[in-house]
Each structure stands twice: as structure tokens, then as C-alpha cells.
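> call design_seq(struct)
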């Protein structure tokens, strides 16, 4: 058993965590819906290509979308049924994506991979690729690629921080599925050829800290409750003391960070021969009758989830996919569970600010709160004036879109949206050679 305190990080903010709404609610398996809408773009990179046709009968965990390139991921059916449509759907996130629609026929069957041939790194990575596993903390980067760095790494860091307010799915998994996480972590370490394994857990999760303290080969690092502790760079600094320089990646300092749900998916792919077909997420906020932590089949409509949680109560003024800091606001409820979903929040007036932004008063609070030491007010101003060259000069591309700058801005400026826009424009300009 090895437990130590994490290195203090002087920047970042303290947010009201609201986790009490369902932190002590065990994960419940939601029954499979009548229909699933499975997106072919649930990851970073090229969309998967449908390999089924309308009218086909499919079985749970059958391949329905094939990866299309190096950075892509396979997609599997989450239920047994008949493919009724393959169509582009504009969801409540405002994005148009190809979905395979499957009508449930009630069969209780599933398809498994063969037993893994050996536990060589190459074989483990290949199984992870086949199973369609991507970073399930939200990033969606294909895990097989992340586990195949071009340089030798020395430390595997497991992200048990879950610093986003309201969300409890990682916490529940850490105390309910500790052994699955442990076994998945060991396979990830085998794939990387790494011996040093650290799990970083925020101090407000004592049961999770205790659960992992029984393993001799994982070091538990207790992190201060601070936002954004779960960001890769901050997690690496607080758990290992290593600084990931601006513009560099964790592998540049010998580290690989993996999320809790991702390592569980790895365990299921290697030991249980299962492709990824479900996820665990938190449904919370004062606008939903019963906040819950749910295991859900991928492709489940949000409207079914709302019904399962007892419906909406009071006046929900904002629906968010993910946490309130880094999640995305949604227009309505036309949304379908994806591999990377960590939660849905239904926030009432008292939980969110709807105030209109006013002029910046140059108070400097946003710069003081920025964990990346940026000057958000300047980047925003350049972005709004279309001066993307200066936005880049002021470090827009180093912004991790954590929302700390906007959290306490007295003028309620939409800093993250402006910086995110600048980042997209800068990327576009570079792509076009400007
Ligand atoms: S916190 Fe808001 S008002 Fe203060 S400097 Fe930053 S953008 Fe301006
Ligand atoms: S500028 Fe970016 S990194 Fe800095 S606080 Fe704002 S969102 Fe976070």
C-alpha cells in the first residue's frame, strides 16, 4: 500500500461541486431502449463507415461501423434488432452526424471476440483497437494509438480526479468496480511496458482512495480538491512533479494518462472478449426528478433517459452534455448517448447564470484564475476583432477550454466560446497555409 499527497498547484479555482445530488447513488443499469441511434463519429478523427444496410438484422456487439484510417474507431451495435435507417441527424449539440438507427427486437444475445492469443503488447493493443475503445473521459482519442507512443514512457497515470461539478460516474466506478479498473490498468501498463502506475484521486473521495489503497503495485496520490485537477497536464504535475511544456504532450515527459472508464473498457475487451457497447454516466441537476448514475446502451435517446429518471421538474433553463465547466450546452433534447458521454445536466435558474455579458472592466480575475497562465481577456478581445494572429501570439492554442476564466468573471464574458472560436480559426488558417 502506498498513499501520498499530490504536489500543490498554485493556480486553478474552487468550484461548488454539487456532487451530493447523486454521489451516493449506486450505478443502475437502464433497460435497453426500443430504438438506438448510434453515431459513426464518437471519437476524434475520421468517422466510422457503416458496414450494415437498412433491413439487416444485427446482434449486440456486432460491428456496424468500421474505422476509416489511423485515427478512427470501430462502432458496435448496443442491442439486438433491425437496422431501420442510416441517416445524417442534426443533434442538440448542433452537429450533423451519420447515425445507424436500430429497432430493438428483444433478443438477449451478444457476440464476443475469441480469447486473446497472448498478452504481448502488440496483441493487447490490437484487441483494444478492434473493440473500438477511445478515451472515454470525453476526449475520444483512439486508445490503441495512445498506447503506441513513438518514445519509451515510464509512468502510467490514471485519472481519478473527476473534478467537474455534478459528475459522479468515475467515483461510483472506483468504489463499485475497483477490481475491473485495477485489471484494466495492468493491461494498459503491459501494453506500454511500464511498471510505475499512479492513480490520482481528489481528496473529496475518501472511499475511492481507500478502495485502491489495497494494491501494492499502484501508488495512490491524494490530490487537493481544485479545478481543473483532471486536466492531463495538471494531473501529471501534481502526481509526478513533471511539467509538460506548452505545445508538448504527456508522452514528451514519459507519461501516459488514462481515464477510469477507458481502463474498464480495456479489461472487458481483453478478459471478457467484449467490444464497447455501453457507458456509465451521471444524470443530474435540480431540473431532473431523480439524479442518477446509469449504465446505458450507446445510442440511447436522451428523452428515454429523462423518462427513466422521473422526468423534468421545475424550470430547466439549461441542458448540458458533460459537466458544467467543460460540457456543451444543448439546444433541446435530441441527443443520443455516445461512448464519451460523462453526463447530462438539467440546470434550473438558481444553478446557472443567464445574465447578459457587459463590458470587460479589466479586473484581471480571469488571468489570475487561468491554470495555463494565459490572459483570457486579451485573447477574447483579439478573437472578437478577428485578429487571430495576435490571439495565437497570446497563447490561444494553449487554452484547455476549462472555463476557469469565465467562472468568476464579473462581466459574465463568454471567454471560452471566443477563445475556442479563435482556436478553430487558427487551425483553419494553418490548414490553408496562411
Ligand atoms: S474577469 Fe472578466 S471583466 Fe475581469 S478582466 Fe477578465 S474578462 Fe474582463
Ligand atoms: S483561458 Fe483557457 S485555459 Fe485559461 S482559464 Fe480560460 S478556458 Fe481555461
Amino acid at each position: 500500500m502506498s498513499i501520498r499527497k499530490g504536489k500543490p498547484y498554485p493556480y486553478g479555482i474552487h468550484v461548488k461541486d454539487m456532487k451530493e445530488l447523486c454521489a451516493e447513488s449506486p450505478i443502475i443499469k437502464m433497460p435497453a431502449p426500443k430504438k438506438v441511434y448510434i453515431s459513426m463519429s464518437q471519437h476524434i478523427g475520421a468517422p466510422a463507415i457503416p458496414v450494415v444496410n437498412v433491413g439487416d438484422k444485427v446482434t449486440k456487439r456486432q460491428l456496424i461501423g468500421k474505422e476509416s484510417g489511423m485515427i478512427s474507431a470501430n462502432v458496435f451495435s448496443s442491442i439486438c434488432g433491425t437496422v431501420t435507417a442510416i441517416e445524417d441527424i442534426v443533434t442538440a449539440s448542433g452537429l450533423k452526424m451519420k447515425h445507424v438507427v436500430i429497432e430493438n427486437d428483444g433478443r438477449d444475445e451478444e457476440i464476443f471476440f475469441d480469447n486473446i492469443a497472448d498478452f504481448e503488447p502488440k496483441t493487447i493493443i490490437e484487441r483494444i483497437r478492434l473493440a473500438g475503445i477511445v478515451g472515454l473521459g470525453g476526449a475520444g482519442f483512439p486508445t490503441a494509438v495512445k498506447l503506441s507512443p513513438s518514445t519509451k514512457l515510464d509512468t502510467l497515470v490514471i485519472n481519478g480526479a473527476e473534478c467537474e461539478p455534478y459528475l459522479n460516474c468515475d467515483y461510483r466506478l472506483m468504489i463499485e468496480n475497483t477490481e475491473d479498473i485495477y485489471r484494466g490498468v495492468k493491461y494498459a501498463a503491459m501494453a506500454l511496458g511500464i511498471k510505475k502506475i499512479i492513480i490520482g484521486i481528489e481528496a473529496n473521495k475518501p472511499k475511492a482512495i481507500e478502495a485502491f489503497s489495497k494494491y501494492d503495485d499502484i501508488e495512490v496520490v491524494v490530490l487537493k480538491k481544485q479545478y481543473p485537477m483532471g486536466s492531463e497536464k495538471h494531473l501529471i504535475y501534481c502526481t509526478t512533479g513533471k511539467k509538460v511544456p506548452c505545445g508538448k504532450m504527456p508522452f514528451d515527459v514519459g507519461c501516459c494518462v488514462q481515464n477510469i472508464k477507458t481502463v474498464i473498457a480495456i479489461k472487458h475487451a481483453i478478459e471478457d472478449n467484449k467490444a464497447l457497447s455501453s457507458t456509465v454516466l451521471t444524470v443530474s441537476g435540480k431540473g431532473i426528478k431523480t439524479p442518477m448514475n446509469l449504465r446505458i446502451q450507446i445510442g440511447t435517446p436522451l428523452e428515454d433517459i429523462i423518462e427513466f429518471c422521473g422526468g423534468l421538474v421545475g424550470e430547466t433553463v439549461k441542458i448540458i452534455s458533460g459537466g458544467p465547466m467543460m460540457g456543451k450546452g444543448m439546444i433541446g433534447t435530441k441527443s443520443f448517448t455516445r461512448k464519451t458521454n460523462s453526463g447530462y445536466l438539467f440546470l434550473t435558474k438558481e444553478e446557472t447564470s443567464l445574465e447578459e455579458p457587459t463590458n470587460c472592466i479589466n479586473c484581471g480575475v480571469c488571468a489570475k484564475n487561468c491554470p495555463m497562465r494565459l490572459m483570457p481577456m486579451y485573447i477574447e478581445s483579439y478573437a472578437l476583432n478577428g485578429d487571430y494572429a495576435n490571439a495565437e501570439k497570446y497563447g490561444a492554442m494553449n487554452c484547455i477550454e476549462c472555463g476557469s476564466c469565465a467562472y468568476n468573471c464579473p462581466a459574465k464574458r463568454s471567454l471560452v466560446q471566443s477563445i475556442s472560436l479563435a482556436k478553430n480559426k487558427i487551425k483553419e488558417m494553418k490548414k490553408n497555409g496562411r
